[in-house]
Please model this.
Amino acid sequence: MSNNGTDLTTGFISCIVAILLFGSNFVPLKKYETGDGMFLQWVLCAAVWLVALVVNLILHCPKFWPFAMVGGCIWATGNIAVVPIIKTIGLGLGILIWGSFNALTGWASSRFGWFGMDAEEVSKPLLNYVGAGLSVVRGCSLAVISGILYGSTFVPIIYIKDHSKRNDSIYVGASQNDLDYVFAHFSGIFLTSTVYFLAYCVAMKNSPKLYPKAVLPGFLSGVLWAIATCCWFIANHSLSPVVSFPIITAGPGFIAAMWGVFMFKEIQGRQNYLLMILAFCIILTGALCTAFSKI
Model:
């Protein structure tokens, strides 16, 4: 198999693993009281950072680029709204909505070269546009904002990689391997979540709402998310973000919806089932169009 074929296989397998884990990572928390989510998000981000530390050691500690932390800061800001979203509109619908806007923001910034990045080219542009469009048929307040923030999270890393090829850039010679930026990215997540949690403690006059029973489920959720994101980094490297974003951000919504149907009974009634099947068909069509635009 050619290197290109190997990259495609690695990329699509990484997408599948990421979709399954992103669609399931909040499941351990669903039945536990998490309150306003501020304590939970800190526990989750601590788990994320520990996974990053392991990955960093496995990669023999590649060069740390502080700018890559900015993406983690953006993600942690979007993550603050996750618990209220899940509690108000449900796991399935929440992930479908923020996933859609995540897909749109991440795809567009990479495809058109926003924020100083190089625009990505694909062999079949029309299929790529159709795939991205079909992956984004939904919308609603907090989930929309979270989706936009999540969609911007890889921008600093892509910016560093793009500018590493320019002799006049401070990032000249930076690694093209996305996994080399995991530690910096996740460090940004943990640092930002810690700042938010400390600010929350101050606002609560040193009486934060803590939920001990949510610690282990929250830690497991963070580990699942971190592994899924590492797979996303691999998919970005193998397929390019313009392809991986629409696929990975659209798929978890369906996985979460399945959890919502069979485990949590969030979706009931024949009409809702039919709508969910229609949504799945649209998501699958969008993912396939995006995938074939690369081949």
About this structure: The chain is about 70% helix and 0% strand. The mean pLDDT is 77.
